[in-house]
Amino acid sequence: MEHIPVLLNEVIEQLKIKADGIYLDLTLGRGGHSSQILKKLTTGKLIVFDKDKQAIEETKEKLLQISSNIEFIWSDFKDFDLELKKLQVDKVDGILLDLGVSSPQLDEANRGFSYNKQARLDMRMNQAQSFSAYELVNEYSKEKLVSIFTNYGQVSHANNIAENIIKHRPITYTTELVDIIKESLPNFILRKKNPAKNVFQAIRIEVNQELESLNTFLEKVDKFLHKDSKVAIITFHSLEDKIVKNYFKKLLDKNQTLFFEQTQAKYIVKTIWAKQNEIENNKRSKSAKLRVLTKLEN
Questions:
Q1: Is 3 a member of any domain?
Q2: pLDDT at 108
Q3: What was the pLDDT predicted at 260?
Q4: How many Cβ atoms are within 10 Å of 193's Cβ, its own excluded?
Q5: Number of structural domains in the chain
Q6: Any residues with CB less than 8 A from the CB of 259 and at least 6 apart, and which?
Q7: Are residues 132 and 176 in the same domain?
Q8: Of 103, 104, 125, 274, which is the most buried if we count CB atoms within 10 A?
Q9: Is 120 inside any structural domain?
Q10: Do 215 and 156 have their domain in common?
Q11: With bands split at pLDDT 50, 70 and 90, how would you rate the model's confidence at 107?
């Protein structure tokens, strides 16, 4: 399946791309957002990151055909500051972070992300990483399994699922895990959406340390912004969105200044959802939320 970038028009509109600006796409994926940013640059530069090496390999040629004003970096976005230091970049005009799993990752059964396809348990975004869903499912204690299912997936009956996982070990394939999850749940839950969805989400978040990466990125990002710089972040579930929302709120609260008895903000924040026509054409966009931070002064 072709990966359709979510909220593409809204991202491009909100970034207000300058032809000579420096921009970061910290989650390249299949390059849908990057290709449109690149088309708007003349003397500017786009620096793209992905910890999935396959994403870079499959996208590089397409983007270089648009422009050579691009740098490809195989890295987790939480380390963006170290990579910018190597490039001697200290300020940027815009940053995009799309926290969704790309369609090719879900569609390629051997990546083990999908609960609808048989594959070895994996779910690693970075294939060079040794720890995978297989190690998590087969080595975590019951308490640790319950904790990640509850905290990262809001999974009901997490205790039953964890007990049954331990009872059926070793578990090798995604389909085995789905069957164990279904065995652990009452019929009224099975009649709703696929009960494996939230368990797989929780495992994926833990394997890839997704929330830790997001928190680390947010702690570092402000010092790379100057006046009018933008940070656009697309989230797909409440855990990520809460982290982004709270960080932006903290920045706003901390940086209000009293100016002639009027509050003067140093940042503004917008929140944008997909329009109905996009949702009809791309179901993934239904849960997407775009939060945009603009720095108003240095």
A1: no
A2: 78
A3: 45
A4: 9
A5: 2
A6: none
A7: yes
A8: 125
A9: no
A10: no
A11: low
Spatial distance between the Cα atoms of 287 and 241, rounded to a whole number of angstroms = 11
State what percent of residues in the chain have pLDDT above 70. 94
* C-alpha span between 167 and 72 (Å, rounded): 45
Same domain as 226, residue 95: yes
* Angle in degrees, CA 204, 248, 259, rounded to 5: 175
Q: What is the pLDDT of residues 23-61, one digit of tens each?
A: 999 999 999 999 999 999 999 999 999 999 999 999 999
Residue-number span of the structural domain to which 135 is assigned? 127-207
The dihedral formed by the CA atoms of 275, 280, 284 and 285, expressed in degrees to the nearest 10: 0
Determine contact, residues 117/18, Cβ cutoff 8 Å: no
Res. 103 pLDDT band, cuts 50 70 90: low
Q: How far apart are CA 264 and CA 266, in angstroms?
A: 7
Burial (CB count within 10 angstroms: exposed 0-12, middle 13-18, buried 19+), residue 98? buried
pTM for this structure? Answer: 0.93
